[in-house]
Each structure stands twice: as structure tokens, then as C-alpha cells.
Write a structure and sequence with these properties.
Layout lengths: L3 H13 L6 H12 L14 H11 L4 E5 L6 H5 E6 L4 E6 L6 E5 L6 H5 L1 H10 L4 E4 L8 H5 L8 H13 L4 H4 L1 H11 L2 E4 L14 H20 L3 E3 L5
Parallel strand pairs: 1-4, 5-6, 6-7
Antiparallel strand pairs: 2-3
Helix pairs in contact: 1-2, 6-10, 10-11
Length: 241
């Protein structure tokens, strides 16, 4: 039986052969991978962001694609498209860049909202394939960010922390809240149960039942009503996990 600690150490050492001086970043990327999460990499150009992602993929023997987001990128570039093969007369699917195991979405803030919404198509594709339970942090809004800063321990939720950094970096609203109606359509169509995550759950007694927690709970209450009105089963994660 493989020793997980040895496997992770070997992965870190292998990636560090290519990327020098980024040990902490490599470790955080591996943690996100083990948690089935996403990584938001912020750095100046030419510092090895793409190299690190591709090295991680190679070390894991995974497929890798990089999407350079620009205003002229269209949804089919991301998710793929179907066209006729005139030799066979059959429809053939041509996979987009997102159809791989590790994807680097470079400068995603430069693309159009239409292309960003195409990422929901991946969510629908997973639902079509049989995924019937999804957790999203849709109740943590941009206006809640200052409330979290008042805390002794601002953010302890992994999903909440990622969303907070995304909203600060892009100066935009939480996309799960912004596109919630579209998400509900996908869930209703494919009978998917939603788990509404608590991104602002407290991490210590000093922060329990504070303004930030109740602000998110108020939004979650709104989302529960919208789920019920649409006929989508949902549950709200509690602060005790």
C-alpha cells in the first residue's frame, strides 16, 4: 500500500525540479488538488504559472490544457463543438480546451460574460453524465467582504476563501449568485440536489453568530426560497463541520 505522505513528498520534489523557489505555492496547489478544489494563481507575467500547472499535470500523468482568455474567445473554444464530417456524413464532437483533467484558465477576467457563462455548460455536462449532487458557495456576496475583515479569524472555509480572493481580484459579484437562475435550470432539468455551502461560517467562538454569518444566512434563505420555487431540492450546510 502506498504511503500518502511519501507520494506527496515525491510530487513536491518532482515539481520543484522545474519550478525553483515556489515550494509553498506547489504545496498549496497539491492541497487544493487533494480537496478537489480550484486554485487562483496571482503573480506577475513570466514567473512560471503555466509551467507549474503543466508540471503538476505531468507529475500526475494527467492531461493538461491552457486557455488564454481574451475578448474574442467564444464558448465553443472552451467547451467544444459538434460539426458534420462530410466524409462519413456523421456528426463529430470536437472537444474544447476544458475537456481535460487539469485546466489553466489564464486571465479569465479578460473574457466576455458570454464565455464565462459557458463554464456553466461544463456543469450541465457533468449533470447530464449523472452527477446528482453539487456544493456551491452562492450565499457569500461581495458586500459581505468588509464584514469578514472584522473577525478574529476572517475566513476558514476553503470555498469561501477562494471566492473572497476572486471577488477582490475581479471586483465582481460572486458568479454562483450572479448565475444562480441558470444553475437552477440545470439542476431542475437533470434532478440535481444543491448543497448551499456556508463560506462565512465562523472559525472560533469569538466570531460565532456575528454580522457576517447572519448576512450570509439571510442570502442563503433567499436562495432556498428560489430553489423551492423552481422545484430544486437543496440543503444548507451548517457551521459545525
Amino acid at each position: 500500500m502506498l504511503n500518502p505522505r511519501r507520494v506527496i513528498t515525491a510530487l513536491k520534489q518532482n515539481i520543484a525540479k522545474v519550478i525553483v523557489g515556489k515550494d509553498e505555492v506547489i504545496e498549496l496547489a497539491l492541497i487544493a488538488m487533494l480537496c478537489k478544489g480550484h486554485v487562483l494563481i496571482e503573480d506577475v507575467p513570466g514567473t512560471g504559472k503555466t509551467t507549474m500547472a503543466s508540471s503538476l499535470a505531468k507529475s500526475l500523468d494527467c492531461s493538461f490544457n491552457r486557455i488564454q482568455f481574451t475578448p474574442d474567445v467564444v464558448p465553443s473554444d472552451v467547451t467544444g463543438f459538434t460539426m458534420v464530417n462530410f466524409k462519413t456524413g456523421e456528426m463529430e464532437f470536437h472537444a474544447g480546451a476544458v475537456m481535460c483533467q487539469i485546466v489553466l484558465a489564464d486571465e479569465i477576467n479578460r473574457t466576455s460574460p458570454k464565455t464565462q457563462s459557458s463554464l456553466l455548460e461544463v456543469m450541465e455536462e457533468q449533470a447530464r453524465q449523472g452527477v446528482d449532487y453539487m456544493t456551491i458557495h452562492a450565499g457569500f456576496l461581495k458586500k459581505h467582504l468588509p464584514l469578514a475583515e472584522k473577525r478574529l479569524m476572517p475566513l476558514v472555509s476553503r470555498g469561501g476563501s477562494i471566492l473572497a480572493e476572486w471577488m477582490r481580484a475581479k471586483n465582481r459579484e460572486n458568479p454562483f449568485y450572479e448565475y444562480f437562475d441558470s444553475i437552477l435550470e440545470i439542476c431542475r432539468k437533470h434532478d440535481v440536489t444543491l448543497s448551499l455551502g456556508d463560506g462565512l461560517r465562523p472559525g472560533c467562538l469569538a466570531d460565532a453568530s456575528d454580522e457576517a454569518q447572519f448576512a450570509e444566512l439571510e442570502t442563503l434563505g433567499e436562495l432556498v426560497r428560489r430553489c423551492r420555487d423552481t422545484g430544486v431540492q437543496c440543503m444548507v450546510e451548517g457551521p459545525g463541520h
